[in-house]
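Collaborator request log, item 7. Partner lab (contact: R.S.) asked for a structural prediction of GntR family transcriptional regulator to inform their binding assays.
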Amino acid sequence: MADAIETSKTRRVYLTLRDRITSGELTPGTRLPSEPDLADLHDVSRVTIRRALAELEREGLISRRPGAGTFITARMIKRPIVADLSNALAHLVEMGRSTDVRLLQFGYLEPAADVAEALRLDDSEKAQRSVRVRIIDGEPFSYLVTHVPARIGTTYTEQELAALPLLTLIERSGVKVDRATQTISATLAGPGVAEALGIDIGSPLIALTRVVFDVKRRGIEHLVALYRPDRYSFQMDLVRIDSGGDRLWSPVERFRGGNNFNGTATAD
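Returned to partner:
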């Protein structure tokens, strides 16, 4: 219990200082107070302060100089990828080709009842299940669990899935993608996900569940994607319209240009 409390305090101090740095309140070159002063300020032990500072130093946000003190560095904070909710399937292939992927699991099984129902599978029909981590700039940002009906999954290999976007492989099999439904919520990282994404157990994550359908309304992919919120965010542009006398917000498609991630859908 004592260890858990100490870990919680360390996390609180770390997040407080990190927010002050990333918001620009603490500018590069600023000298932080001494460890005893920080301990008094945050009402924690010096051990807790040292652990929090060690994490900030690991991220390159501070530099500890023996005999001189601890200073804020000039390292640029990377902006998260921004995904456009108004066009959920746009540019998936482009994004897949701009990022790397690490395939953790690949196999065939009878999926859980909720997945089978979402994909409208027959009784005992198997699905190809994969677990992947997608990486940008050498750092993981998403943990993806996908189920694809076996009739489609058998058209590609484990090696191909590790090298190509899943949507490309599905369409290569002759399937015509038509529509998708998705739900966005939040969750906490379990041990396996935390290790794969390089974060602490219990860290907050953006959770997205998407089911993709073909032109015959058959489910062809079930995706559960977990994203690091410091490296990924969603955005929707809205316009004010008249509807039966009411003034409502309606989504609009964003302008797309260049090869950046702004305005792309989630990678799978």
